[in-house]
Amino acid sequence: MTIRISKCTDEDLLVLQEISMETFNDTFKDQNSPENMLAYLEKAFNAQQLEKELSHLSSQFFFVYVNNEVAGYLKLNTNDAQSEEVGNESLEIERIYIKTSFQKHGVGKYLLNQAIDIAREQNKKQIWLGVWEKNENAIAFYKKMGFVQTGAHTFYMGEEEQTDFIMSKILL
């Protein structure tokens, strides 16, 4: 199995939108109402929103390929693109989205390690992310990778207020 990443460009918008909707829906549809899922998918992953995110100078998107097939993507934020004010010495992993058929094959670990490498290249002191408090598999994975819970913030899934744990890792 060959895994590699490639930086996304504006030309990747439709593939990015498709993967975003597919992976988010597959991961969270069973724990949320169809109405809230639809409202969130339409707001977060419409073409205009993703185009805005892709063009932000402090955000980066990377497709991950497994045997030359797009398996998911990674979104990183620095500076003013971060969803919390944690300072310019931090890098946020906003999304690690992996298609269901590629999960449990080391792709998430690969992406997380790529994010850590990028953070180190940018001389960041900390890497952090938000993860839904009910996403137990992801929380266990991040803990295994050395992240600790350092806070929480509110996240809206349609009309429903939910809690994301903030998990951080100090880079040495």
Structural class: alpha+beta
Subunit organisation of the chains: single chain
Alpha plus pi helix count:
5
The gross shape turns out to be globular
- Report the span from N to C terminus: 30 Å
Mean pLDDT: 96
Q: What does the largest sheet look like?
A: 7 strands, mixed
Name of the level-1 CATH class: Alpha Beta
Question: What this model shows, in words?
Answer:
Strand 4, helix 4 (107-121) and strand 5 form a beta-alpha-beta unit. The chain has a 7-stranded mixed β-sheet with strand order 1-2-3-4-5-7-6, with helices on both faces. The longest helix is centred in the N-terminal third of the chain and has 16 residues, at 13-28. It has 5 helices and 7 strands; from the N terminus they run E-H-H-H-E-E-E-H-E-H-E-E. With 172 residues, the protein is of the alpha+beta class. It has a single domain (3-170), classed as Aminopeptidase, CATH 3.40.630.30.
Task: Please give a quick description of this structure.
By secondary structure, this protein is of the alpha+beta class.
